[in-house]
Amino acid sequence: VLDLMCRHRSVRSFTDKPVDEKTIERAVTAARCAATSSWIHGYHLLQIDRGPRREALSVLAGDQAQVREAPAFFVVCGDTRRHRRVAERANVPHVECTETERPAWRR
Fold this sequence. Notes:
Layout: H1 2-6, H2 21-33, E1 43-47, H3 52-60, H4 65-69, E2 74-78, H5 81-90
Antiparallel strand pairs: 1-2
């Protein structure tokens, strides 16, 4: 695993070849299975197709070419509602940053 992690590289140039739906489904499934803080998965994945929205997003992201040109592009949106609901159910205060502080119900 360490060897594989050390060989990681970022690709920021793309062909025009689209990413097939099966590959996208596998990537999204892998993301959904990844461990997260308290296993709550406090995020949403949004796939943004090419077009005006992607162009506008590229500008908002510092005019990054890879945002415009990638054959498949996802935005990861943090969502703390799930953390808040767990805290409410456990009748403990919500902790704003669960990555740096352990919630009272997990101590």
